[in-house]
Amino acid sequence: MNLAQAIAYFLREAVQNLLVGWRVALVAVFSIAVSLLTGGGFVLISGNVARLLDEWTERARLVIYLEEGVTPAEREALEARLAAAPAVETWEEVDSRAAAARLADSFPSLAPLLEEQGSVPLPASVEARVDRRSSRGEEWGLWLSELAALPGVEDVDDDEDWIRQMEGFAGIAGTAGLALGGVLMAAAILTIASVVRLTVYNHREEVATLRLVGATEFFIRGPFYAEGLLQGLLGGTLALGGLLALHGWARATLPGVAGPEGPLGRFLAPQESVALVVLGGLAGLVGAVLSLRRESLGVSETGENPLDI
Question: Is the Cβ–Cβ distance between 155 and 120 less than 8 Å?
Answer without folding.
Answer: no
